[in-house]
Amino acid sequence: MRMNEGVEWALHSCVNMTWLDRDEAVTAKKLAAFYDLPAAYLNKQLQALVKVGILTSTSGPRGGFKLARRPDRITLLDIVTAIEGGEDAFRCEGILRKGPGGRDDVDYRAHCEVSLAMRQADLAWRRSLAGTTVADIAATVERKHPGAGEGTRARFAGI
Amino acid sequence: MRMNEGVEWALHSCVNMTWLDRDEAVTAKKLAAFYDLPAAYLNKQLQALVKVGILTSTSGPRGGFKLARRPDRITLLDIVTAIEGGEDAFRCEGILRKGPGGRDDVDYRAHCEVSLAMRQADLAWRRSLAGTTVADIAATVERKHPGAGEGTRARFAGI
């Protein structure tokens, strides 16, 4: 049960975009070059972020990707869900239906104690991811490594 | 990012075993028949539980699987980890190493804010699963459905 590596790329790309001017679009090629990633595959992840309204995408000579909303309104959960989908990691197939007293008209996702406990864990995971925004990450990085934002802007300008 | 369906089977099989006598071994065939599951594949999951000391396995005419320890000492996390492995869902590839100022001698799993936040969520998930034992599940089921344990024993006797 491992996440797509695109999650890491998308998260870092969004954090990097918090340090750019709000009206500055950056291409997938530049975002990929920043970490030496394959641009076509990163582009696929960025398109997934556009689809759910985390990024906007514009075409043309000064086109590229921008954050679609304020970084303090973009949580890690938003990004992870955009890439990985919103389904729980635990898949309840409702095997109790085949057990003694099992019923076809019962939704075991809501009535099976195993399923409920697994869902509880999934919610704890989501709650944790929803509690951190890309703005939080950027602020912590800047606090621990003063100049990180400036360095990121300079790097993008030089690519 | 979905779990193996064997997780659901293993969890339910362990809960069912809490209702059997401590010295009563039950075969993979019987455990599988309980929910109409494929016995060979369930057996594979049960062997994984034996490997980490959740179940014991004995051979012979009265052989089969038993809980290796008290049900209140077997958490959902123990079972999930036995089937899915103990790795975090988020895979930190340390892409910061390729970024500006990136260093080969830094373990980014411990120093990258993205990685740390993702790990925090993973820990929240683990903590939730570690907070529930198969004994807790069995007790809740018995409370909501009095006679569930008795019914389970009768079903196993009849298979």
Describe what this molecule looks like in 3D.
- The structure is a homodimer.
- Chain A is mainly alpha-helical.
- Helices cover about 55% and strands about 5% of the residues of chain A.
- Chain A is built from 8 helices and 2 strands; from the N terminus they run H-H-H-E-E-H-H-H-H-H.
- The first copy, chain A, has helices spanning about 5-20, 30-35, 40-50, 75-85, 110, 115-130, 135-145, 150-159, and strands at about 55-60, 65.
- In chain A, strands 1-2 form a two-stranded antiparallel sheet.
- In chain A, a hairpin with a 5-residue loop joins strand 1 and strand 2.
- In chain A, helix 1 runs antiparallel to helix 4 (about 75-85) and helix 2 crosses helix 3 (about 40-50).
- The longest helix of chain A has 18 residues, at about 115-130.
Summarize the SSE layout with pairings.
2 copies of one chain form a homodimer.
Chain A: H1 6-18, H2 28-34, H3 39-51, E1 55-58, E2 64-67, H4 76-84, H5 108-111, H6 113-130, H7 134-144, H8 148-158
Helix pairs in contact in A: 1-3, 1-4, 1-7, 2-3, 4-6
How many DSSP E strands of chain A? 2
Which oligomeric state applies? homodimer
pLDDT below 50 for ≥5 consecutive residues: which ranges of chain A?
A: none
How would you spell out the order of helices and strands of chain A?
HHHEEHHHHH
Give the strand order of the largest sheet of chain A, numbering strands 1, 2, ... along the chain: 1-2
Basic shape of chain A: elongated
Mean pLDDT of chain A: 93
Radius of gyration of chain A: 20 Å
Largest interface: A-B, 56 and 56 residues
The secondary-structure class of chain A comes to mainly alpha
- What is the CA–CA distance across the termini of chain A? 35 Å
**Biggest sheet details of chain A:** 2 strands, antiparallel
How large is the share of residues in beta strands of chain A?
5-15%
How many separate helices of chain A? 8
Helix content of chain A: 40-55%
